[in-house]
Amino acid sequence: MRTSQYLLSTLKEDPKEAAVESHRLMLRAGLIRQVASGIYDWLPTGMRVLSKAIAIVREEMDKTGALEIAMPIVQPASLWEESGRYTKYGPELCRFLDRKENEFALGPTHEEIVTDIARREIKSIKQLPLCLYQIQNKFRDEIRPRFGVMRGREFLMKDAYSFHINLESLGETYKAMYDAYSRVFTRMGLEFRPVEADNGSIGGTNSHEFQALAEAGEDIIAWSDSSDYAANIEMAEALAPAVQREAPQDNMSKQPTPGCHTVDEAADALRIKSEKVLKSLIVRGERKENGKYELIMLCLCGNQELNETKASKISGLTSPIEFAEDEEIKNFTGSHPGSLGPVGFKGRIIVDRTADKMANFACGANEDGFHLINVNWDRDVPQYEVADLRNVEDGDPSPDGQGTLHLRHGIEVGQVFMLGDKYSKSMGATVKDETGTDIPMMMGCYGIGVTRAIAAVIEQHHDDRGIIWPESLAPFKVAIVAIKPSSNEIVRNTAEQLYNDLTAAGVEVLYDDRDERPGVMFADMELIGIPHIITIGEKSLKEGNIEYKLRSTGVKETIKLSEAKKIIFEKIK
Ligand code: ATP
Ligand code: MG
Q1: Which of 189, 250, 284, 461 could form a disulfide with 322 if both were Cys (CB 3.0 to 4.6 A apart)?
Q2: What's the pTM?
Q3: Is 152 near ligand 1, meaning CB less than 6 Å away?
């Protein structure tokens, strides 16, 4: 490809809207452009990278025996009603009417469509196991689209779905997919960790996410320094501290804390540490006949964070967790949030395992502007339950009993799920077993965020000059920069010849024939991140040489023109 015939679209200035490096570099290197919030064009250079990522994913899927299909982006609401997700899936599901007023949705994922295929096409257990996949745009009306294609609204996903006669067979395919994902992300040059994950709105039992390690990641993963344990913080269990709770000391008493609304403000006013203050939150339980919600108090140590995913799994709580509104709280407790506490609370109280070990602590008095001190469980709060409610912290013991947990940010680039019979049962996707009984098929589903993975690669592979592509994803393998070709025929002819020879040999070359200032051309080639850069200029040509530079290390070499092709082939292997 010649730059004179190409749409380079590089930007000299940093785009203001980019908050993370990958977004900044994807815009600057001319990979993508925003069309609307969370919706992007992929320009030629971006498309070349995307095609390579797609090819890697397709190859690894095909190796597992999965079969490629294409399902529609536009999905009838009736199928979503069958699975029960039409009402449950929140506003991320983009719903619309056709001209005949039939309801449709844009596919955020395809469990319903593929289960419909399975119930039509799979007639006998002899056809099982079967795994179907597609690589296709998804639409999710994300509440906060950001970081470019990392969290877009329209994005490219590889989604695969498997069907089985029993759990054992599902387990085998789950393992095969897990291994294929590891190969995909390794080939993309990502440093990643598979971690235990929550199933979220997809449902099912077992799940792992593949997390690319990067500061820009929106997820936090907890990993043990002495075992294989790694989990999304949403899932990571916080063990009960292995200590005895201290005995109660003085009697409980009430203290004025005017204007204190947060744990830290109360701690300051009472001259104690925030870990001696109890944090009390009120969430909604079931809706009662009078239209009001049951209100449930969750209690945590003042310096720790509620884990909403773990809390949402406690029976009687909602999923996702719904916090009570100020008015509801005031009517029920007599105080506003900020002065809440378990003493005298007339509802269910759930105490975190670490908070359960607190003694002689402070908490809100359920009276605006007052806190209680020297409060003790059992003595002052007779009725309560204990559960794992908090986020794990760096330094917590690993829940598998081996080592200490550490936290890192991750970008979720893929997730695999064991769905069981959630969709096959509700949608009647059954096969006859040996006894002739209809049984729902067991299902798995497996997603890769292809466009997000490209952003993750850039987060891990860049420097202050631009992107540093791994060979497997590079839009071009070799850049040829010709210095002043218009005024020097030998330079021009040499560059043309090398370009033609390499191209004829199947090497993807970007030949910068723009006749720009050398600095401008180098800056662009480095920004785009082409791994091997060749410079052809008058001075070195006179000695029969050309310059070679490896983008990743910046190391330059002078090579003999007569050996150029041979050496370049060795470098790009
Ligand atoms: P997240 O928690 O980041 O919202 P998710 O768990 O809802 O993602 P899945 O349903 O597991 O996403 O989708 C499979 C893959 O699709 C994810 O692992 C991720 O790589 C990618 N993906 C999901 N949402 C987006 C998005 N808004 N933009 C880009 N990629 C996405
Ligand atoms: Mg996910």
Answers
A1: 284
A2: 0.93
A3: yes
